[in-house]
Amino acid sequence: KKCVCKLLILFVCISLIVLPQTLRVDRGTETDVMTTIHCFLREKNGDLDDPTDSVLYGPSTQNKIERWWRELLERMEKFFKDQLKALVESGEYDSSSQSDRALLAYVYIPVVQKELDVFRECVWNNHRTRKQKKKELPAGVPEHIFHFPEQYGGEQCGIPITEEQLLEVAELSDVFDYDDDYLNAAVRKECQQHLPNVEEIEPKDAKDAYLYLKSNVDEDVFEIHTWNLQSFCAGFRVK
What we know:
single chain, mainly alpha, two-stranded antiparallel sheet, two-stranded parallel sheet, Integrase core domain-containing protein, signal, Integrase_dom_put
């Protein structure tokens, strides 16, 4: 929960300290603190009698992002699943092994994140959308629409907030007290000794990087130290 909320606060900072007027979420357990933070900041603006009115709830299945998911599936999911499946079938990855999961996380999380960033910045945010029937949505490039809404019949609706307000809500919610490194410091140090520039690994080389790391690390480090977010890598179990 706190990891997600920390990302929300960082997102607001990156967005020139502008808060969205509304927040749409489902009723998952990871959204309660996030919605509380949003309502706290909306109340500071003083434009709503009840700041909870700025939170919209709905099932994630109703998010209209079918094309986004299709693009992501075609470009990334199958590619990485094939690599992970090959590791499982060859016996090189065991989801019940803490060391295997840590090594996989060390290699794949930065690689996948980099590809997601490229997809967001170079593909999705800069692809040209077409006019949709019966929908009041602008047609054009999302990145340009976001920065120049007035050229598309829109307006900037973000709510300016101060850095002091962000720091206040961060302190009250303890979100920055949370260590979001998914690996124990000793485990990360051991991995970095053998594969220091993991962010430079090409996606096609990720499987070989994992195998190289597995054959060179000191297994005793993984037996002594546990890592911080074991659940983080539960998703790496190939189904």
